[in-house]
Write a structure and sequence with these properties.
Low-confidence stretches: 1-18
Helix content: under 10%
Strand content: over 45%
Largest sheet: 6 strands, antiparallel
Number of helices: 1
Structural class: mainly beta
Radius of gyration: 25 Å
Distance between the termini: 27 Å
């Protein structure tokens, strides 16, 4: 529908042209031309470059007409086949025409769906109206130049190219830290790193009496949480410190903050899930940015150990820790096409929620407790099951 709407607008007022973008490649190159290292073919919804053994596939627009002062971020939505290039460079012509500067982003060919990659174009040469713009595909070697990509037969499906004032925030309600910190940054007296599927928060307190300065991590500006209809935050963690309080802090929309506090166990031997009701305050609504986790100690002896956070989930489920169905398991997990839901009593209803908290699948008809998930996109989901005695339970599943 998005592409059809744009096409209708262009047909109605063709004199505006395609300059400035977005360029959506609906059956056309949209003013872009392929360079060396590839062949090209238009499609109904994407423009496909296929590597041909030459160095560094690329595509260029010499009349892009981008307002560089107002738009400092390049956004390219594409899908790579296996073995495809792992580095994308935006080429910017220098003002004195003496050469070019390059801005870069790392690509992930293992993703099976379209991904939007953002390149910060901020540079003294990125100003005024930029016409001569090229995107070049290479391989990532840890340097700004990258290394040549010269294999053959991989495809690069380009869905959209556009230039934006800033990187838009991603709405995400489930954080599992399988490969990155997913937007959670250290802000005060700690360091964070994704490791072994956990967000590891290393506190920098002294662990001595009189140390009352809290440690804090916060969700950065690239992510927001959809609070509307999702009042509960569930955090599963292992506390290896003496800090005995966890606080969730979020903006109230009027220049202040709302703080929700729970007492937590200390020096854990296993992971524990805590459920916070953030929706008891009417300020918890809309897309919430800047949510913070504050680690505190009631006796003024701030810890210096490690918090291991397995997951953070925001949804409309009262509790994920107090599952009332015994012997509840899901297999296989991760799964590609089907999962089997194993419970002591029969399943009468199964619901699946995506990372934003949106329900994407529901059924009350399972044959041999088998659930078809083949239509779901790859990613992390929450499965909520109701058994024949009306008990409920929730598990995280991964769709490959």
């Amino acid at each position: 529908m998005r592409k059809i709407t744009l096409l209708s607008i262009l047909m109605a007022v063709p004199f505006f042209g395609l300059a400035q973008g977005p360029w959506e490649f609906t059956g056309t190159e949209d003013g872009w031309s392929r360079g060396g290292g590839c062949t090209a073919a238009t499609g109904a919804t994407a423009w496909t470059l296929t590597t041909n053994g030459g160095n560094n596939p690329n595509f260029t627009n010499e009349s892009a007409g981008v307002d560089a002062d107002a738009n400092t971020v390049a956004a390219v939505t594409l899908r790579l086949s296996a073995g495809g290039p792992t580095y994308l460079r935006l080429r910017i012509q220098k003002d004195d025409l003496s050469g070019f500067v390059y801005k870069t982003v790392v690509l992930d060919p293992t993703q099976t769906d379209f991904v939007t990659y953002y390149i910060d174009a901020t540079d003294s040469n990125w100003s005024g109206t930029e016409n001569n713009i090229r995107f070049q595909f290479k391989d990532n070697d840890g340097t700004n130049s990258g290394t040549n990509h010269s294999t053959t037969g991989e495809t690069i499906e380009i869905d959209t190219v556009e230039f934006l004032p800033s990187i838009p925030a991603t709405v995400q309600n489930t954080y599992t830290f399988d490969s990155s910190e997913e937007g959670w940054d250290d802000t005060i007296r700690c360091s964070v790193a994704a490791n072994n599927g956990n967000l590891e928060v290393q506190l920098a307190g002294t662990g001595t009496p009189g140390d009352t300065n809290n440690s804090k991590v916060a969700l950065n500006s690239l992510y927001v949480i959809d609070a509307t209809g999702n009042p509960y935050l569930h955090i599963t963690l292992k506390n290896n410190t003496n800090d005995d309080q966890l606080k969730i802090v979020y903006p109230d929309g009027m220049g202040g903050n709302v703080t929700v506090t729970q007492t937590i166990s200390t020096n854990d031997t296993d992971f524990v899930t805590y459920d916070f009701n953030l929706g008891s305050n009417p300020a918890w609504t809309g897309e919430k940015a800047g949510v913070e986790l504050v680690f505190d100690d009631t006796v003024g002896q701030e810890g210096n150990g490690l918090f291991e956070i397995d997951s953070i989930v925001v949804d409309n489920i009262l509790s994920t820790s107090d599952n009332s169905i015994s012997s509840f398991s899901v297999s296989p997990n991760p799964a590609d096409t089907f999962i089997y839901i194993n419970v002591l009593n029969g399943v009468i209803n199964a619901e699946i929620f995506d990372i934003t908290g949106k329900k994407v699948l529901e059924t009350n008809r399972l044959i041999d407790n088998k659930l078809d998930i083949s239509q779901l996109r790859s990613g992390v989901y929450l499965l909520r099951v109701t058994d024949e005695t009306s008990n409920k339970a929730v598990k995280r599943i991964i769709k490959q």
